[in-house]
Amino acid sequence: MNRKLLGISLILLVLLVGCSRKELKVPLEDVGMVGIMAFDYIDEKQMKITVAIPQYSPEAQQKTQIFSVATDLVSSGIVEIEKLSDKKIVFNQLRVVLINEEFARKGQVRKVIQHLYRNAEVGNKVLIAIAKDNAETILKGDYPDKPNIIFYINDLLEPSINTAFNPNTNLHDFIYTISNPVTDTILPYIEKLDDKLEIKGVAVFKGNHMEELIKPEEALIIQALQGRKNLAPLHLDLHEGHGEEKLMIDLIESTIKMRSNKSIESPKLIINLKIKGTLSEYKGAREYELNTVESISHLEKDINKQLEEDITKFLDKLKNMDVDPSGLSEKFRMYYDGKWTTKKTREVIGKLKTEVHVETSIISTGTLK
Amino acid sequence: MSTANLKMLNRYHVIFLAQSIMIGTGILSLPQKLSAMGYTEWFMPVLFGVVATLTLWPMVWLCSKYPNENLFRINEILLGKVIGKVINLFFVLQFIVFSAGIISNYMHLIQSTALQEQTITLPVICLLLLLVYIISGGIKSIARFCMMTFFITIGMFYFTRWAIEKGEFSHLIPLFNFDWQEFFDAFKKGYLSILGYELIMFYFPYIIDQKKAYRHSLIGIWISIFLCFFTTVVSVIYYSEWQLKNVEFSVLNLFKAGEFSFVERIDIIGITLWVFLILSSITAYVWCAKLGVDSLLKKKRNYQLFLLAAIIFLIVRMPFSREFQEKLFTTSNYIGYMLIIWPIFLSVIYVVRKKKVQQ
């Protein structure tokens, strides 16, 4: 009897498939996968959303579809874009979010990014960057020697060791730093120059808004202080009694140790930075002396001094701006009982005294004597 | 009902039964549940482990007095037939709602991440069919399934690698930075995640080496506790306090931190593999519910397992509002705590009525 039942159910299983409803899934050709999203500031209530979607159809003239709408909510903007588009808009392939400077300074950046963070379609690896002037024109710009704006911006911001300078920040980093009272957010800042884009520096946030733009060399110090192991090549101008000297060190490794005095009333931080690298280029008075161990170690000492000066100067600058992008106040939170707030971070940074020690070791100067 | 000839769980079965039942959906949101304590939450799982160790003891002690009876029978012996049966009915309902809660929780997660354009009816049916299939093999097949689950899913811990690389270990100190209200809040919400070991009171009669059952169960419990501890620590070093509070399924976002060159969204893989963990814990609960139904009915029947599955399906897909569902599941969660206290209560009764109820 069981066999009969099994047979009948097998037959039914096969035959009844014909009765099933047709699946309502959107085929892949009809899905528009957003690669870049850009936000521009209009006024306090409104913003402009621009999306770039790759165009796969060979008949199309342009390789990317670009839509922009003005809206007050992100999701209603997306509904508007769906009305304009011939495809269904999805965010699974979102790679980059661009925010224009004005929006970063005045708009509700945190809300917008938080909206994306909430969305399960969006991965956490989406890169965020600030655009000078207008983010829409960056997307609509013409880059004749680049394959596609989506790949171009993504590769430009993509973290890689070879890129000379890269303060990349992804969705998780952004939310982590902006919601963490001990750190202030940093974002790469890009500018459009004719038919190319350039990372001009780093935008430093204070609270939920952009505060200041700092130079790449200074941003390198932030990264070193954050404890990043691999840094971009370091360019230095030495003024240590040998006239003006210029040199470039390819940094191989950097380690940082910080010790705080655990006091919030009179905070003091001792910073020990050790860097190892190869001297890749040198221009200055000592050019022909640098072939002995002694002269190299002399140069190392000069570099130490110069770096200590630079770092102290930069920390003073941050102190005046009252921001803490490298999370120095974490060293004080670690020893504090109770709730730590942003206000405490500002207090600590305002009163912070630092003592910087740098230890450079030049491993090699290349294979030529 | 004599089960003397049914001893079939060896020590590995006991270890992994205790281990796998504990890990369900709870661990997914454990860091969020504990977040009232901020960064200091990371040592809580160890504390839970200690509490579990202490509360496991009365369970095993009580069961060792009745080596051939499960808790449903013990209830009837100690409390009398009528009260015992009422309590048993209550337990059965609790198990049904509890497992429905786990399924519903997981299915909503699946719906919001992996299958966004589908209803969850079909996945729920598939899950329940599997459930019926595993349970109809008896407790031994559940135990075997638990072992398999452990070895299939343990590899997922590799996926937290990227989060550890990025994390700030300084979040771990200061250590005791909380007040008591935060502590109780975290304890109340978090302890739920490690429930499951109390089911030993139901499969105890099937264990071969009952004298060592306590030790074997403890090994299982501490494996789970270690996994919970590990997850919590990784979450604490990777997230800010705001994120700990607001990211509901922290483990999922930990998986989002990394990628392979050939797979971009590891969280989707992780969350679909999680179905093993869900199955291993609900099968045990539903098996216990079936045991309860058996003890309530006079005649043995074959269809009650399907009936249980149908009831669970109805609860998961019931046309009530989400709010009511949430309330129901939260209530059943708190009743789950009662099962931890229950053996202590029964032990007291046992001591008081010792002479009357001795076999």
Description:
Chain A has 369 residues and is of the alpha/beta class. Chain A has helices at residues 2-16, 74-84, 101-106, 109-118, 135-140, 149-157, 171-179, 216-226, 293-321, 330-333, 342-351, and strands spanning 31-33, 36-41, 47-54, 64-71, 88-90, 96-100, 127-131, 186-193, 196-206, 209-214, 234-238, 245-260, 268-283, 353-364. Chain A has two domains: 27-214, no CATH class; 216-369, GMP Synthetase, Chain A, domain 3 (2-Layer Sandwich), CATH 3.30.300.210. Chain A contains eleven helices and 14 strands. In chain A, the strands form three sheets. An eight-stranded mixed β-sheet of chain A has the order 4-3-2-6-7-8-9-10, with helices on both faces. Chain A has a four-stranded mixed β-sheet with strand order 11-12-13-14. In chain A, helix 4 (109-118) packs across helix 7. Chain B has a single domain (3-350), classed as Amino acid/polyamine transporter I (Up-down Bundle), CATH 1.20.1740. Chain B is built from 18 helices and no strands. Chain B has helices at 11-22, 26-33, 44-65, 71-79, 81-113, 121-135, 138-153, 161-166, 180-190, 200-203, 213-238, 241-246, 250-255, 266-273, 275-296, 304-316, 322-352, 354-357. In chain B, helix 1 (11-22) packs across helix 15 (275-296), helix 5 packs across helix 16 and helix 5 packs antiparallel against helix 17 (322-352). The two termini of chain B are 14 Å apart. Classes of the chains: A alpha/beta (369), B mainly alpha (359). The A-B interface holds A 24-26, 120-121, 123-125, 172, 175-177, 179-181, 327, 330-331, 334-339 and B 38, 112-113, 116-117, 168, 170, 173-174, 177, 239-243, 253, 256-257, 259, 264-265.
The assigned structural class of chain B equals mainly alpha
Count of separate structural domains of chain A? 2
Q: Work out the number of β strands of chain B.
A: 0
Reading off the top of the CATH hierarchy, the class of chain B is best stated as Mainly Alpha
Helix-strand makeup class of chain A = alpha/beta
Mean pLDDT of chain B: 86
Number of helices of chain A: 11
| Secondary-structure element series of chain B | HHHHHHHHHHHHHHHHHH
Biggest interface between chains:
A-B, 24 and 21 residues
- What share of the residues of chain A does DSSP label as strand, in percent? 25-35%
